[in-house]
Amino acid sequence: MNKRGLALFMAVGGLVCVPFVAQAVDVEVYGDARVSIDMSKNGQEPATGKENSALSVNSNTSKLGFKGSEKLSDNLSVIWQYETEVELDNGDLAVKGRDTYAGLKGSWGLLKAGKLSNPMKSASSKIDIFTNTRADHNLFVGYVNGVNTFDNRFANTIWYSTPTFAGVRLDLSYTTDSTDSKEDALPNKLISPEKSVTSFSLSYEKGPLYIAVATEARNDAKETSSITPVYEDVSATKLVGRWDFGQGTRVGFVYEDAESAESAVFDSTATPRTLTTEATVPGTARTVFYLNAAHKVGNTTLKAAYGQAGDLDNYVGTGASHYALSLFQSYSRNTQLYIIYTATNNDANAKYGLKDMAGVEGQTVSALSFGLNKRFSSK
């Protein structure tokens, strides 16, 4: 048998065996296919030589995952998950890994370690009705003037969740080195910058109400001098809530106060003033308020969202507003079609964008998106 024949034989044999193996060790194969056709505009000036509008096909964080568990005793189970992004628009597996871990679970709680979204990022995932679309709420929440500061997942993360008691749960995480490098252990670990991250959330979920408060502190996240490096910490806190009114209607909100991790200063000689990264300035924090609503009638769900990012402290013209309107049509539990129109309006010195779409300073960024969401699972 030649090499191609052998490879084909092994591949087919592996596929045939998967259901039996999965059943024996409780393995689930799952994923999301999230393809969309988008017509986007970003207000880019033609003088830059770049287009200010485009028609594109996007994968919207499609994913493939494997997860499982094994009961070790009456009060102890081992759990694991491997998940990666899949780029449906070009047919590749993305190099960007998603939550991937192994851990232990019992009546005492859950302990896991690996590459993880921390409690700060995860706290508002329950209210994101536009998750993994152009209108995803993370284009504002976790971003400071268009810079992804707190909407991250980190390698080298340890996570502990307490048992849920009367609807209340505490989630804690510590990231030993947020640089995602292999130099996170002795003898290569640097004294400075430390680049560790601490996060926690306290949540309550019972009946129609979900509410959570979460915080994240990133150690040595801001370099305040390029000549003699000095590092500063940054932090963020957010309050999240959701209420289900019944009869298909629910609303959600996020309020977040976050600091910028980028060194930045305004160039006062430019008209309008522009934001550069040549030096640091104090007071680079901002607040965000985000509100959304969804109403389901039969198999059709109407969704809307509005967000407002405030100015960086002491600097006018660095705020932005965002809105989204959509119609989702469900054809089964795991299949949806949708149409979304979403836009972010930047003030003169702001550069917020949309999901997977960078903003342009002082311009309106918008997209009309026609999409398909397909979920699948071996269970």
What does this structure look like?
The chain is mainly beta. The chain has a single domain (21-377), classed as Beta Barrel (Porin), CATH 2.40.160.10. It is built from two helices and 22 strands. The longest helix has 23 residues, at 3-25. The two termini are 36 Å apart. Mean pLDDT is 84; it is low at 1-24, 264-268 and 277-281.
Low-confidence stretches: 1-24, 264-268, 277-281
Q: CATH H-level name... which superfamily?
A: Porin
- Put simply, the count of helices is 2
What Rg do the Cα atoms give? Answer: 23 Å
Structural class: mainly beta
Number of DSSP E strands: 22
**Overall mean confidence score, pLDDT:** 84
Helix content: under 10%
CATH level-two architecture: Beta Barrel
Under CATH, the topology can be stated as Porin
Largest sheet: 16 strands, antiparallel, barrel
Shape: globular
Q: Kindly report the spatial arrangement of strands forming the biggest sheet.
A: 1-3-4-6-7-10-11-12-13-14-15-18-19-20-21-22
Q: What's the domain count?
A: 1
Report the portion of residues in β strands: over 45%
CA distance, first residue to last residue: 36 Å
